[in-house]
Amino acid sequence: MQAELDGATAKLNEAESRLSTTRTEITETWVRIGRLGDRVQAIEARLSRRAVIAFTNGPASTIDLLLSSGSFTDFTDRLEFLGSMAEDDVDLVLEQEVAREELRRARDDLLGLEAQQEATAEELGRIKAVIDAQLDRISDRVAELTREYNAELAAAKELVVLGQTPDPDGSLQVCPVAGPNSFVDSFGWPRDGHTHQGIDLISSSGTPVVAAHAGNVTHSSSSSGGIQAYVYGSGGYSFYAHLSGFSSASGGVGAGTVIGYVGNTGNAGSINHLHFEWHPGGGAAVNPYQMLLAVC
């Protein structure tokens, strides 16, 4: 059951990366189409001006220009000038055709990218349905175990059954999601305009989120992280994003204290998950995947 959930989670992260890349390519293609459109319009305007001049002067003016030459050398120069003008007109028409073809291909590329984006979005929907079904199965199993033992000690044993193994001596002492979850090593994967700086632990909405280590908890919110919390400890700080809400915990908390609940606020999309980051020494985020494997 867990293996199937982890496999679906890996596919979800891969699809999200492909979708992010496709969105970037669509934006770049729109810019290219705009530039090509401007180029085609500029060429057409030049051709229109040349046509007006040719119509206004007419063929007689060309003959007059040649006949009015004062010498054979002057005649030759004027003939060469008229020839170069004709070549310029042909080059301009060819340039127009090339620009139109490039514009057509760019529009075809855009249609292909938009179709690819739609297909990936549909794939994300199917993967989400698989994940939701697996999480429901795990949650049902957890509920069944809870009913059987019906005690706090049994609940703690249940977490062990689910693969949660506290490590009192580690930088991360407990799993930040106190319930069924699934995650893969998605640290550094591409996202819109940046790389992923944490690990996404997928779980059901409302699953308790706990402090992964002792420290002081603070609350905040942002358009990207939604409802989010920080826990500042002696060895660094951890970051928890996309929460559905906070618990009543504030100030100093111990490892395992409930600080919020899994949700999908901010830019999490439709997938309920905890975005978790670990910043040792208060510096840049590092990949916490192996540390999470040890405690989740």
Overview of the molecule:
54% of the residues lie in helices and 18% in strands. The longest helix is centred in the middle third of the chain and has 78 residues, at 72-149. The chain folds into 2 domains: 1-162, Orthogonal Bundle (Helix Hairpins); 164-295, Glucose Permease (Domain IIA), CATH 2.70.70.10. The protein has helices at 2-67, 72-149, 152-161, 289-295; strands spanning 190-191, 194-195, 199-202, 208-210, 215-222, 226-233, 236-246, 251-253, 258-262, 273-280. Strands 3, 4, 5, 6, 7, 8, 9 and 10 form an 8-stranded antiparallel β-sheet that branches. The protein has 4 helices and 10 strands, in the order αααββββββββββα. The chain is α+β, with helices and mostly antiparallel strands.
Helix/strand/pairing category:
alpha+beta
Helical percentage: 40-55%
CATH architecture of the largest domain: Orthogonal Bundle
Q: What is the CATH topology classification name of the largest domain?
A: Helix Hairpins
Keyphrases for this structure?
Glucose Permease (Domain IIA); Helix Hairpins; single chain; 8-stranded antiparallel sheet; 4 helices; alpha+beta; 296 residues; 2 domains
Structural topology:
Blueprint: H1 2-67, H2 72-149, H3 152-161, E1 190-191, E2 194-195, E3 199-202, E4 208-210, E5 215-222, E6 226-233, E7 236-246, E8 251-253, E9 258-262, E10 273-280, H4 289-295
Antiparallel strand pairs: 1-2, 3-10, 4-9, 5-6, 5-8, 6-7, 7-9, 7-10
Outline of the structure:
This protein is α+β, with helices and mostly antiparallel strands and 296 residues long.
